[in-house]
Amino acid sequence: MLDSLIDFFTTYGSIAVFGVLLLCGFGLPIPEDITLVAGGVISSVACNVDGSFLQALNDCNEVHIMLLISMAGVLIGDSTMFFLGRIYGKRLLKVRFFSKIVTEKRYTWIQEKFAKHGFWLIFAARFMPGLRSPIFVVTGITRQVSYLKFLLTDGFAAIISVPVWVYLGFWGERQLSDLNLLDHYVKKGQYGIFAILGIAIVTLIIVWFIKKKINEKTSI
Questions:
Q1: Cys-Cys link to 12, which of 1, 16, 54, 126 (CB 3.0-4.6 A)?
Q2: pLDDT tens, 146-157?
Q3: C-alpha closest to that of 27 among 105, 108, 114, 137
Q4: What residue numbers bound the domain in which 114 lies?
Q5: Rg of the chain's alpha carbons, rounded to an integer?
Q6: Which of 166, 129, 174 is nearest to 35 (CA)?
Q7: pLDDT tens for residues 17-62?
Q8: How many CB atoms lie within 10 A of CB 46?
Q9: Is the CB of residue 39 less than 8 Å from the CB of residue 69?
Q10: Does residue 160 belong to any structural domain of this protein?
């Protein structure tokens, strides 16, 4: 799939990257991380700067522009799903396309998780390809979160993931003799992101637990 996306983006440019990422927000069955990596690859191809990866990263505007385009595609796609849910409410679920994305079972599950975890569910959704679109639609339907808070939460999660994939693609085109090896590094990147998230979640749980114990002692 990576090779196909690279060929497609090479032919149609950054607007194609934006378009595919936008459609990913609608549940297009194309991995977002692979799309971002392919965007990084073509930004390296378009860069005329020779030298090491770090030199090219410093001197090539193409990859940084690709990052901005990618962030825009990701956030606009997510925001569109949020607003569709917010504007049309549960009526949206009667439309065949959306009824397949947000089944009754998923709708109930997301509502339960959202009531329990709130903003953390929005944050986590960015790293859950199969559930991202349904979660954002249901978030809009519930009307429990303002768009600004939704955008800040989703944007913070995107800042963690999007640069990793774009710069990984840029690095791979510069440093690897065989782009097929990029699949290996994509998997490593996925594990790395999940590890960071896991550490962050455990840290927050520990901090919450310590604060709870301190409050219990001070209230006695």
A1: 16
A2: 999 999 999 999
A3: 137
A4: 2-179
A5: 20
A6: 166
A7: 999 999 888 877 788 888 999 999 999 888 887 777 788 888 888 9
A8: 16
A9: yes
A10: yes
43 and 17 Cβ atoms separated by less than 8 Å: no
User: What is the tally of structural domains in the chain?
Assistant: 1
Tell me the C-alpha distance between 77 and 210, whole Å: 38
CA distance 172 to 183: 10
Q: Does residue 218 form part of some domain? A: no
Which tokens belong to 103? 């089944």
Whether residue 192 is contained in a domain is answered as no
Whose structure tokens read 């509502």? 111
What would the pLDDT profile of 129-143 be if each residue is shown by its tens digit?
Answer: 778 888 898 888 888
